[in-house]
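ugh finaly. both done.
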Amino acid sequence: MGVELHRAHPLFRAGIDRHAEQFRRLTGVGPLDVFADPAAQTRAELLQPAVFLLQVALAEFWTSCGVPPDAVVGHSLGEYAAACVAGVFGVEEGLELVSARGRAFAAVPGAGRMVAVGGPDPAELEHLVGAHGGAASVAAYNAPERIVVSGTDTAMGELAAAFERRGWLTIPLETTHAFHSTLVAPAVPALLAAAGRVRHRTPAVPLALNLTGGWAADGEPGAEYWGRQLTSPVRFAAGVRTLRDGGCTVFVEVGSGRTLTTAGRAQSDGGELWLAGLSPRTPDSATVLEHLTRLEEAGIPVDWVRYHAPFRATGRTAGDRPGADRPAPAPSTELPFRFERIVIHEPASAAGSGVAAVRHRVGGTAREVVDVSVVDDAGRPVVEVFGLELGARTGAEEAGGPDRCSPQEAERLLASLDTLTEDQLHALLPLWAAPDASTPVGSTEE
């Protein structure tokens, strides 16, 4: 959960570290201790404030990159972060509230479980759930035909069997409690007491509510809202519909995973851009760069200067001691090269025996323009440089390739690309200046 991004990007790290001392006071451990430890994430009193802090720090990060939200919607615990981002309360107040929520859950036996259902008939599903009385509840309406039910072990076992007899896909969920059911009602009094100590403000950013699926009205959400939200269904599908009806066409999942993106896409007509959260299968820095690139392509004015600023102050070149400072790199206008953009898909150390793939651009200009990729053994791109413009052609023209780059020139170029890590520099430098670097050895698609 965000450990790699905390290590790699100062903007995100600052958002976490700013509240680390309060987090430690409330939980007894640091936020990174929870982010990195699956065992700690099984404890509600640690997991819930950690998720909240991760989400609000990511929201701050995206805003710093020039991507502030026009509207927000959360999901269950995520609604606390959405409310914070909307300005209902501050981060410190939110941490106090969510920590109290986690402690309240920790005091409630973790009985019961939750099951996701691909039920094509919500009315029939609700009838089946209702037949179990207070032992089962509809916990969330995530998308059409994507519903979550919650309740006792016995009720869930019987309902899962009933769903499967009807051919409905059922997926058990890994959760600490049977959320949004009567089984968690004992946590409500402590939560209400904590919420009563927090000043709730009118949202400054439009906020779609879990309880109604519609926009928050004056006085919403108040302290009492969180008590009702705890045991009521999450109407996330309606919330997404409200945002879409309000003109939202770009959706960024703020957190870890892609659950909400998957639910949103299920009700999309294909006209929106959906960007998932951080993934355990992809380095955080790669996810962030890919999202920023796609946001810019969608017309969102990304603030690349703000994104790169921390690296310009503290970056390293190949061969520097870890942690050693160096002067800010020379602007690209002072270099004998120009480039359009860089896309990093994964750390260069994962490339193995990667090779340089050069694609020549058609044109008769006095300068050679190529697209250069470092690809792994399977031909997948690790790092791509689009529109690399080299110096005027000389004898290399007859060979159909670009001018040779000296290692020193290549290092100057690559050191100016602040997105590259030290291991990427080490991997790219010898490939860039290799004798056969201009030979097409493969191709990649963007």
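ok and the 2nd:
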Amino acid sequence: MTEKTAQQAAAPVPSDHIMGVYQRAPLAFERGEGARLYTTDGEAYLDCMAGIAVNALGHANPKLVQALKDQAEKLWHTSNIFTIPGQEKLATMLTEATFADVVFFGNSGAEAIECAIKTARKHHWANGNPERIDIIGFEGSFHGRTLAAVNASGNASYLEGFGPKMPGFIQLPFDDLEAIKAAVGDTTAAIILEPVQGEGGARAWTDATLRAIRQLCDETGTLLIYDEIQCGLGRTGRLFAYEWLDGAADPDIMAVAKALGGGFPVGACLATARAANGMTPGSHGSTYGGNPLAMAVGIAAVQELTKPELLAHVREVAGYFNQQFTGLKDRFPDVVVDIRGKGLLIGVQLATPNREFMQHARDEHLLIAGGGENCVRLLPPLNLTLDEAREAIEKFERACETARDRAKAAA
């Protein structure tokens, strides 16, 4: 190695060597603890993004850290041509807690969505209906960044520059039951939706529409896919958002990820045995999916996320946030337009530009996410304390004051 090469290897990679697909905030974090992130220069921020609903148990959660350490000293990776005991254990945990009979493990939400789409289409093929390939999705939805996932999503900008729209994907208006009834036909394979949209502006489907969609799917042989990558695993106050309907609108297939690994890359596609009847050996696979490291962390995460006391805590903190944000909406009508979402997937629709507001929040050392329809989202760790929730409201209120004052000054 030459002296220049050695220097290059030791130096941090400059930003112009990273593909420019992100609009990054000028913050770099070096460590986290619970709901706090600490920058490289020691500044502390209250994290109400949690890696976009990923760090559901907070940063450096000791139980997840220990699970990772213990497994790292044993075995990292083998191959899915062998039995992986951790997969058997985590799949059993997930199926016993849900509608599902079988699970496929990947590395991300997008991979879980790919598996869900393939599972739906292969189901109809195996049942003698290969023409049933259409996937019906909805305006404002977001299902990932692979080509199939962006075609299933309801955001045309994600497709710009990547060639023509794929056949077999249909987008409809959000929560429009009559449009759904009109669209379902002989070539429909599945309907895919997020029970509570994330990027689409934290919009929750009505219970009545979800029940009607489930009935329509039963009547037409259409499969129902839920994307609970963001809204699942305790985020709404139940383990999964569909559980709020008490069995009246269970899915046939469901994609999960994010909180499943508590920060470690894990994704999963859950399905009934009936829906997955076409997924035979060779029809799908993954090199890293379900590796022993991921399974060890996933098991530890699910053990915590399924605890009734944690879910009760989510509901308590969510109730506090809802009360407080409703008060801020009344106090700052020229800033806050609407409060949306469910549980600790909180959307605040703004009258001022959401990216500017996110900066106002960062100036208060509060981290929040953006969202569609000029929303900002709060997606804090599920074990956020009530004291930390009060602190978040205080910081958000000061951001509202800044937004109001600047809007008045600009007028």
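summary for the 2nd one i guess: Residues 257 and 267 are 4 Å apart (CA to CA).
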